[in-house]
Design goal:
The protein contains five helices and twelve strands. By secondary structure, the chain is α/β, with parallel strands linked by helices.
Length: 288
């Protein structure tokens, strides 16, 4: 199974994002997967752009860009009736970073059930501080998902991500815990990030989130297996329920922002690409 190459499809399913927009982002994400993410996680994968859902081969995992997914942000992960992963990304400004987030997490844990045991996050508030062992849900972008930790590929902002060493039981000098090196020790969370984990004693799930430099505990309650739903889906559902009074992920899309997203989603390096295209056309024209 590990020798099979996963194939991910990015596809625009409604205005304003076009195939041209998606193609530029796909080129950046493919480079990220091949150059940055794959070597650290031992994953080889393809990422391709398609004009519409009907064109996506049935063995690809689709990441669908829509103008309203009802739950915008980096947690639009789902599984279909056959248990295969797909993801929804809201077409807001910055959707490229969200798409990168979703692709990397899909590749690290396609079926949304992978957990790794370890000590609780350091310096956690009660009751987490009293736990001796927890089960981490493998979500490779969440601990460092803040925009300030993103980085550019082909001029496009993509998500930072943790390395497998993030789950080491103890820290060590010279070890890389996140790709950009912002995370300095295992199980820690950066500003605007979070990590999800369960207490194996009572199957109660929690998140540690960091806001204004302070760690906070979000109690998600007891989460048990549900037929046809992955652990990642159940955790995300519990987060929505916990935050329902904040109108979390229920805001309608803003037309102005959508137009901005379409304008911004091309590569900032388009001028240099256009110059090279002009040169190539001239060269092809002169071929005999």
């Amino acid at each position: 199974m590990s020798n099979l190459t996963p194939h991910v499809a990015l596809v625009p399913d409604s205005p304003p994002v076009t195939l041209a927009n998606v193609s530029a982002v796909v080129a950046a994400i493919q480079k990220q997967v091949t150059r940055d993410f794959g070597p650290l996680w031992g994953i080889h994968a393809t990422v391709d752009a398609f004009e519409k859902l009907e064109a996506v081969p049935i063995d690809y995992w689709p990441v669908i860009i829509r103008d309203d997914i009802k739950e915008p942000g980096a947690a639009g992960y789902h599984t279909d009736d056959h248990g295969q992963p797909f993801s929804l990304v809201q077409a807001d400004p910055g959707w490229e970073l969200t798409a990168s987030h979703e692709v990397l997490e899909m590749l690290a844990d396609p079926f949304g059930n992978r957990t790794i045991a370890g000590p609780p996050p350091p310096k956690s508030p009660a009751p987490v501080s009293k736990f001796t062992r927890v089960m981490y849900l493998v979500e490779v972008c969440d601990p460092c998902e803040g925009d300030q930790f993103a980085y550019e590929v082909n001029g496009i902002q993509l998500s930072d991500f943790i390395t497998p060493h993030y789950y080491d039981p103890n820290g060590a000098t010279g070890v890389q815990y996140s790709f950009r090196g912002s995370i300095k020790e295992p199980h820690t969370v950066l500003e605007d990030g979070y990590v999800s984990f369960g207490n194996p004693v009572d199957n109660r799930w929690y998140q540690i989130i960091v806001k204004n430099g302070q760690s906070q505990v979000r109690d998600l309650g007891v989460i048990t297996a549900a037929q046809g739903k992955s652990l990642r889906e159940l955790v995300d559902r519990a987060v929505r329920e916990t935050r329902k009074n904040e109108h979390y992920r229920t805001k309608s899309p803003d037309a102005g922002k959508l137009a901005m997203a379409a304008a911004a989603s091309g590569s900032p390096l388009a001028e240099s690409s256009a110059a090279r295209a002009k040169l190539l056309r001239s060269y092809v024209k002169e071929l005999k």
